[in-house]
Amino acid sequence: MSGLLNGIRHLPGYLDRTRQEALVEVIRAVVAEAPLYVPAMPGTGKPMSVRMTNCGPLGWVTDKERGYRYQPTHPATGGPWPEMPKLLLDIWNDVSGYEKPPEACLVNFYSDDARMGLHQDKDEQDLEAPVVSISLGNSCLFRVGGLNRNDRTLSFKLASGDLVVLGGEGRLCFHGVDRIYPATSTLLKNGGRINLTLRRVRP
Ligand SMILES: O=C(O)CCC(=O)C(=O)O
Ligand SMILES: [Fe+2]
């Protein structure tokens, strides 16, 4: 897409409906084992509007006291994160161009009024690996900028089944979700949007 840093790719319609449904089933099983929880911003403890869980050996978490980090256990249950599903490994192998497998899949659940402020994904030690992001359910307005918070941004819609790959020069670009468009997909019967981000954490 023109105007974006090299290495940022939007793959519209990457997953057909059948694979989207299969992925929702897989995520339901993950959530049954590792329930969605409300993450809190470092320092202020302000709750995020997105609910989260993870699968894979590591999970991204945040709370008031200890801030953004990866850890091998669920902050509420204390148990290990569920295994990374094969379907997600297949997607990573197809689009990442990276030899090592992803270690974390962050599951973000957006209700129709949730959003995510502009940020960089920079809690990973391995910045050679891209971030692979999968959208399911209602469409959203995704915003992408440059390497500085004040750089000009571009916005585009992400629909169910779309992929975004943040790699190369664009690995540390600022990005966020401005809004969800209610009733734009029939995939999730109670509405909302699921975003899955696959990440390699350790080199
Ligand atoms: O929901 C999205 O599309 C983006 C999520 C994201 O940026 C993140 O989890 O770091
Ligand atoms: Fe992000």
From TrEMBL:
Keywords, in A-Z order = Dioxygenase, Iron, Metal-binding, Methyltransferase, Oxidoreductase, Transferase
TM segments? none
Query: Which GO molecular function annotations are given, in alphabetical order?
Result: broad specificity oxidative DNA demethylase activity; ferrous iron binding; methyltransferase activity; oxidative RNA demethylase activity
Residues annotated to bind substrate: W60, Y68, R69, Y70, D123, R149
What are the binding positions for Fe cation in this chain? Answer: H119, D121, H175
Question: Which GO cellular component terms, listed alphabetically, does the Swiss-Prot or TrEMBL entry include?
Answer: cytoplasm
* Positions of the Fe2OG dioxygenase domain: 101-202
| Record: residues binding 2-oxoglutarate | N108, F109, Y110, R193, I194, N195, L196, T197, L198, R199
Swiss-Prot/TrEMBL GO biological process terms: methylation; oxidative RNA demethylation
| EC class (word) | oxidoreductase
PROSITE patterns of this UniProt entry?
A: FE2OG_OXY
- A Pfam family recorded for this sequence: 2OG-FeII_Oxy_2
Cofactor dependence is on: Fe(2+)
Give the enzyme's EC designation. 1.14.11.33
Per the entry, the cofactor note is: Binds 1 Fe(2+) ion per subunit.
**Know the name of this protein?**
Alkylated DNA repair protein (DNA oxidative demethylase)
